[in-house]
Specification:
- By secondary structure, the protein is an alpha/beta fold.
- Helices cover about 45% and strands about 15% of the residues.
- A 6-stranded parallel sheet has the order 2-1-3-4-5-11, with helices on both faces. Strands 7-6-8-9-10-12 form a 6-stranded mixed sheet, with helices on both faces.
- Helix 5 links the parallel strand 1 and strand 2.
- The chain starts with 6 loop residues before the first helix and ends in a 6-residue tail after the last helix.
């Protein structure tokens, strides 16, 4: 078992002293690259995890927090990081950022972090983990916090995706729309990254309104504006196009808007569009949306980390509220469109 493996085992199999093995796993500059690679190969094979006791004897708390994100360029992650960093800095904690953008990055992080143990806490931002990955983190003995996701039984802060989706779809229903399409989005490089609550909300809202589900009005695409634009083009090609579109995110919704405007259709007169997030571009493009306070999610996650490191109780999990933001991209359907007749 990984818990029975110690540094001496790694050193012996790598053919080096325990001190050299320790320096290699800490990426010490005075260790030869070939030696470092040999030590790391053995550590990975043995699933070596540095013991919390050894870490404390080596110098106490590190004062560092690992923050793991799948993306850096997307608005949501930047907003969460801004709130998180401010709280950690106030508490005197440094942030170490790890991007796990693909399967290789992800495997490297969850394999190597337990052997390094250079941090006191790990914050997973918008990242679902499986049981094996969670187990590796737990064996390190560090504080674990999830922001924008849930990693039971650890503290987490997020929105309720089902509630957010209901706010968006119910808005379209209340406007009188009966042919409502959904552009669902997922991240192809991240397991478990599909916001299932936003999908279940769509079907629940239609059922509560007594509206039938037309599978031709449901599209599932990758997370992005280009994918949203392509999906909207497909929806416009249906024999009976939708009068309204609910997108899983503002980025996807912005792509849908682009296709509609290039097709010469008016928003919202011909087609209404709503997203989720309240991305900064949503206000600039007059996009109706369901806003989520990403910065607040980061701030609360930071408080959870600080409380956990101080041994203080913190209510968890935390669900932060979302709000409907009505702008110019949604409105009642035209009478002829409400009856399902296609514009000529």
């Amino acid at each position: 078992m990984p818990s029975s493996v110690n540094l001496a085992d790694v050193a012996r199999l790598a053919g080096v002293s325990p001190a050299t093995a320790s320096r290699a796993l800490s990426d010490h500059p005075h260790v030869a690259p070939s030696t470092r690679e040999r030590v790391w190969r053995v550590a990975r094979e043995l699933e070596y995890v540095v013991s919390p006791e050894a870490s404390r004897l080596a110098g106490g708390a590190t004062g560092r927090v690992a923050v793991v994100v799948p993306h850096l360029s997307r608005w949501y992650f930047g907003a969460v990081l801004e709130g998180l960093e401010a709280g950690l800095r106030t508490a005197g904690l440094d942030l170490l950022l790890y991007r796990v953008g693909d399967a290789a990055d992800r495997a490297a992080f969850f394999t190597e972090l337990p052997a390094r143990r250079k941090v006191d806490a790990v914050v997973l931002v918008g990242l679902a983990v499986d049981d094996e990955e969670r187990g590796r983190l737990e064996r390190i003995g560090v504080q674990i916090v999830a922001a924008g996701a849930q990693v039971a039984p650890h503290p987490s802060v997020r929105i309720d995706d089902h509630v957010a989706g209901r706010q968006a779809v119910d808005h379209l229903v209340h406007l009188g729309h009966k042919r409502i399409a959904m552009i669902a989005a997922y991240d192809p490089e991240q397991r478990g990254a599909h916001p299932a609550g936003r999908t279940s909300a769509y079907f629940a809202a239609l059922a509560d309104a007594g509206l039938p589900v037309d599978e031709e009005l449901v599209r599932t695409v990758g997370w992005g504006a280009d994918e949203g634009a392509e999906a909207m083009g497909t929806l416009l090609g249906r024999s009976a196009p939708p009068t309204a579109v609910y997108a899983h995110s503002d980025e996807v919704a912005l792509g849908a808007l682009r296709t509609l405007r290039r097709a010469g259709l008016r928003v919202p007169d011909d087609v209404s569009v709503i997203g989720v997030d309240d991305h900064p571009l949503a206000a600039l493009t007059d996009l109706s949306t369901v806003g989520q306070p990403a910065g607040e999610v980061g701030t609360i996650a930071g408080r959870m980390v600080v409380a956990g490191l101080r041994g203080e109780a913190f209510e968890a999990p935390v669900l932060v509220p979302t709000r409907l933001v009505v702008r110019g991209s949604t409105g009642p359907p035209r009478p002829d469109r409400a009856l399902g007749r296609r514009r000529r």
